[in-house]
Design brief:
Number of domains: 1
Low-confidence stretches: none
Binding site for N(1)-(5-phospho-beta-D-ribosyl)glycinamide: 12-14
Strand order of the largest sheet: 3-2-1-4-5-6-7
CATH architecture: 3-Layer(aba) Sandwich
CATH superfamily: Formyl transferase, N-terminal domain
Pathway: Purine metabolism; IMP biosynthesis via de novo pathway; N(2)-formyl-N(1)-(5-phospho-D-ribosyl)glycinamide from N(1)-(5-phospho-D-ribosyl)glycinamide (10-formyl THF route): step 1/1
Binding site for (6R)-10-formyltetrahydrofolate: 69, 94-97, 111
Number of helices: 7
Keywords: Purine biosynthesis, Transferase
GO molecular function: phosphoribosylglycinamide formyltransferase activity
Distance between the termini: 11 Å
Number of strands: 7
Bound molecules: glycinamide ribonucleotide
Length: 193
Amino acid sequence: MKNIVILISGGGSNMATIVRTAQQEHWEQRYGARVAAVISNKPDAAGLAFAREQGIATEALDHKAFASREAFDAELAATIDRHQPALVVLAGFMRILTPGFVAHYAGRLINIHPSLLPAFTGLHTHQRAIDAGCKFAGVTVHQVTAELDVGPILDQAVVPVLPGDTAETLAARVLTQEHVIYPRAVRALVQAL
Ligand code: GAR
């Protein structure tokens, strides 16, 4: 079985879309792939309840309980590895990962970032796109490498920036496209595994 482990920090709408797509498209029968676990660094992340309702194993690992980023990442990796992942999917996981963690999952760790990379790495991508006068914004799925938001691009989608957009209205438009491309990218990877 190709186990997919999804990491979240909040609402988990991308995670939920991947889970629903896997169910609707019968990924288990077709590709031998399943979402094996959802892990959050925030114990109260809303997405954990959804995953639990779907019968998926969930784990919460509060980063505040760890003395260092390295200690948290070591425990996170041990938690992930108990689910024997073929693919680790960051879906709104708002933690910077240590180089050791990234190296451990080299080639099987992906992220979704709400900008058209290589533009606007980091935070506040929508406001920065508006402030820069961009006419288009978007979203990128990429392989995770040691440098933040810089790994090889796997998929992208573009949306217009409309007059009067706020960071919130633009984020909502981008999110609808996130829900299109993330399941597509994960499907392509598990098919190729
Ligand atoms: C998404 O917009 C995702 O692109 C972004 O967080 C949101 C999570 O939403 N990720 C980042 O900003 C990563 N730096 P979700 O919890 O509803 O999937």
